[in-house]
């Protein structure tokens, strides 16, 4: 059934992924980047679990580099571990235990507080989770029974089992390492060891290593036999992983300085340095100690500098005996040549174009995510894409200031123009009537407008003098006669395309304006900047809605839902707005944790899907809610029909008033009947 939430597994583009539903839509397909803050290698070293963009846990083949499965957790804080036939993973508050051989969920536990760590015991019999509620919980894997709760004075951050079954070690946010008896859960003592980020026993249980960050940047090794600190040293970077060699004589230290250091377990002497892809954010080793696996996140360089192709996130495999690098994997859709920054969907919703940092455009099937075609469009990153209303033309804007028009059927170049004084491309857009296209580069005070049919320059709109006049965003008015701009000041300007005359100037209680969008009917103007956003009535010249605590870099109106979908630092949000007055409450669609600056969204004319390209998260498609799906369960069914019937004739009875005309009537009833069965 297409409306399933947790346990339905889809096979999309060769990748298995578990779908997650929510009240404002569901994921249709994903092509995520790797975000290896967590790597957990299986016993044989053939695969590892790795965190990905959009809150995914990927199952990565360490021979081919293929991302074979994807489990979507919708979590901002993710953890995973693997032992035998078991994969355990957690988002912020839910733990899932999955059997790998059957790919079935066996147990699931929901907690009230955030989960900070997740670890199997070496024998695979127990699973432990460190939680924000100051408890470490331990479950028996065989039957899912909760067998122990270890109470903490401070918040536990990490948990580790000794290999011979004697101890459990935990660390907390006060810098203490606590030792517990595994057999009965008895507290044995604590010591200050600053184990904020990593914690691990040696195979012979003679040593306990920990790593920290913040102001200490230390790795510390404790001698379990003498009950004393063996050594500590400052590595001047965050220590995200510590693992021991098979003979327990060496400890591997992975840190954010881009290295894995091999040090002697007894005295900390530096034995070798392994230079990783970028900063090391995760480290794990197979039980037999034949493979060491590290995860390195992407580094986002200054967008004004030439792209560095070695900076996407990667998972690397090492030989811990020789310190040799065996393999580097970027994931199926995150090779050094793919860094998605911009997206545009054809009006008929059949194909999606994605532009990347290296100037390539890729066409994908909008329903399945299958790659259809790739061509090199520019010599610089493509910061923005737009499609003409008739779907015939694709407009691409690159960071070197070139703007090009392509035939969407043949990918033939139609026009090529240049934006003056371009630093990087902010936005390209096509007028609603398909007559014009315009392009704005970052913090530019001029905005050129061209005819789409001939490529002829119509006007170069001057937005004022001085840095404060520089624009950050623009949009066409619904009648295609003017352009609305917002920038580093608190004003929005409406400028006539033909004459360049200022038609209207609006002031908002914002320090600057990042986004301006005009609704398709020309009535509403969405303005975002600082920490708020406003919905302005262009007819009555008044604010009708305020979105508190909201900053967006891209947005799209959804008139059929009387809503706006937005994309910004807080993730993807869905906002229903009132056309009368008041504040509007937003609902998060999906959290995003990457620090990448380049991303965009696109919605087809039927408003059924949302497409997103994000340099740090990847490419994604969401199915937006059908207005006739009143109870938002993903299926237009009997329950929705009954809701309309019971509310028939009532006024102000949303959501039964699906066409938002103020009364539940025949039109709403027909809307449900015509969509009956959709999504089911």
Task: Note down, in words, how this protein is organized.
With 680 residues, the protein is mainly β. Among the domains are: 81-329, YVTN repeat-like/Quinoprotein amine dehydrogenase (Methylamine Dehydrogenase, Chain H); 463-591, YVTN repeat-like/Quinoprotein amine dehydrogenase (Methylamine Dehydrogenase, Chain H), CATH 2.130.10.10; 639-674, no CATH class. It is built from two helices and 59 strands. The protein has a six-stranded mixed beta sheet, with no helix packed on it. Strands 3-4-59-58-57 form a five-stranded antiparallel beta sheet, with no helix packed on it. Strand 47 and strand 48 form a beta hairpin. The longest helix is centred in the last third of the chain and has 9 residues, at 638-646.
Helix and strand arrangement:
Layout lengths: L8 E4 L2 E4 L2 E2 L2 E8 L1 E8 L5 E6 L3 E6 L5 E6 L6 E5 L2 E5 L3 E6 L4 E7 L4 E6 L5 E6 L3 E6 L5 E6 L4 E6 L5 E6 L3 E6 L5 E6 L5 E4 L5 E5 L6 E6 L4 E7 L4 E6 L5 E6 L3 E6 L5 E6 L4 E6 L6 E5 L17 E6 L4 E6 L10 E6 L5 E6 L3 E6 L5 E6 L5 E6 L5 E6 L3 E6 L5 E6 L6 E6 L5 E6 L4 E6 L5 E6 L8 E6 L5 E6 L3 E6 L5 E6 L7 E4 L5 E6 L2 E6 L4 E7 L5 E5 L4 E6 L2 E6 L9 E5 L8 E4 L6 E6 L3 E6 L14 H9 L19 H9 L6
Parallel strand pairs: 2-8
Antiparallel strand pairs: 1-2, 3-4, 4-59, 5-6, 6-7, 7-8, 9-10, 10-11, 11-12, 13-14, 14-15, 15-16, 17-18, 18-19, 19-20, 21-22, 22-23, 23-24, 25-26, 26-27, 27-28, 29-30, 30-31, 31-32, 33-34, 34-35, 35-36, 37-38, 38-39, 39-40, 41-42, 42-43, 43-44, 45-46, 46-47, 47-48, 49-50, 50-51, 51-52, 53-54, ...
Helix pairs in contact: 1-2
């Amino acid at each position: 059934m297409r409306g399933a939430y947790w346990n339905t597994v889809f096979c999309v583009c060769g990748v298995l992924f578990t779908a997650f539903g929510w009240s404002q839509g569901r994921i249709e397909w994903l092509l995520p980047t790797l975000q290896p803050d967590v790597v957990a290698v299986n016993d044989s070293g053939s695969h590892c679990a790795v965190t990905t963009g959009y809150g995914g846990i990927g199952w990565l083949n360490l021979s081919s580099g293929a991302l074979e499965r994807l489990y979507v957790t919708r979590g901002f804080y993710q953890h995973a571990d693997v032992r035998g036939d078991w994969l355990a993973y957690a988002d912020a508050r839910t733990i899932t235990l999955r059997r790998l051989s059957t790919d079935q969920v066996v147990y699931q536990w929901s907690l009230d507080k955030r989960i900070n760590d997740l670890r199997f015991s070496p024998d695979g019999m127990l699973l432990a989770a460190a939680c924000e509620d100051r408890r470490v919980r331990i479950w028996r894997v065989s039957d899912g029974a909760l067998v122990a709760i270890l109470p903490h004075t401070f918040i536990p951050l990490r948990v580790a089992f000794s290999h011979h079954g004697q101890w459990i070690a935990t660390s907390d946010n006060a810098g203490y390492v606590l030792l517990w008896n595994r057999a009965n859960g008895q507290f044995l003592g604590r010591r200050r060891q600053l184990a904020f980020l990593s914690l691990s026993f040696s195979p012979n249980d003679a040593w306990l290593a920990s790593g920290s960050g913040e102001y200490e940047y230390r790795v510390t090794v404790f001698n379990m036999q003498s009950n004393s600190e063996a050594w500590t040293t400052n590595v001047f970077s965050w220590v995200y992983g510590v693992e021991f060699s098979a003979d327990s004589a060496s400890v591997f230290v992975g840190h954010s300085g881009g290295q894995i250091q091999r040090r002697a377990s007894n005295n900390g002497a530096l034995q070798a340095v392994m230079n990783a892809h970028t900063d090391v954010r995760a480290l794990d080793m197979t039980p037999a100690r034949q493979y060491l696996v590290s995860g390195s996140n992407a580094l986002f360089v200054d967008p004004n500098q030439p792209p560095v192709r070695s900076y996407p996130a990667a998972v690397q495999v090492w030989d811990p005996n020789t310190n040799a690098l065996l393999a580097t994997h970027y994931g199926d859709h995150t090779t050094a040549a793919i860094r998605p920054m911009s997206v545009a969907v054809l009006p008929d919703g059949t194909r999606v174009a994605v532009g990347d940092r290296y100037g390539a455009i890729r066409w994908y099937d909008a329903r399945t995510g299958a790659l259809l075609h790739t061509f090199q469009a520019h010599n610089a990153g493509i910061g923005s894409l737009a499609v003409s209303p008739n779907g015939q033309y694709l407009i691409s804007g690159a960071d070197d200031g070139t703007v090009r028009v392509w035939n969407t059927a043949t990918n033939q170049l139609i026009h090529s123009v240049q934006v003056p004084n371009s630093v990087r491309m902010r936005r390209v857009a096509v007028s609603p009537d398909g007559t014009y296209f315009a392009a704005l580069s970052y913090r530019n005070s001029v905005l050129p407008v061209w005819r789409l049919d001939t490529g002829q320059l119509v006007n170069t709109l001057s937005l004022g003098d001085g840095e404060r006049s520089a624009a950050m965003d623009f949009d066409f008015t619904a009648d295609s006669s003017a352009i609305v701009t917002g920038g580093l000041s608190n004003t929005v300007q409406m400028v006539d395309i033909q004459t360049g005359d200022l038609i209207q100037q609006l002031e908002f209680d914002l320090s600057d304006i990042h986004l301006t969008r005009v609704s398709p009917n020309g009535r509403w103007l969405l303005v975002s900047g600082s920490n708020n956003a406003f919905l302005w009535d262009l007819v009555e010249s008044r604010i009708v809605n305020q979105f508190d605590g909201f900053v967006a870099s891209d947005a799209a109106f959804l008139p059929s839902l009387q809503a706006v979908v937005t994309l910004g630092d807080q993730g993807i949000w869905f906002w229903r707005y009132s056309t009368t007055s008041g504040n509007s409450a937003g609902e998060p669609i999906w959290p995003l944790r990457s620090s990448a600056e380049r991303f965009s969204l696109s919605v087809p004319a039927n408003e059924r899907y949302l497409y997103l390209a994000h340099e740090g998260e990847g490419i994604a498609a969401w199915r937006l809610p059908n207005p006739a799906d009143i109870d938002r369960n993903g299926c237009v069914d009997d329950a929705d029909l009954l809701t309309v019937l019971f509310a028939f004739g009532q006024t102000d009875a949303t959501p039964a008033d699906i066409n938002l005309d103020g009364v539940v009537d025949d039109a709403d009833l027909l809307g449900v009947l015509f969509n009956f069965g959709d999504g089911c």
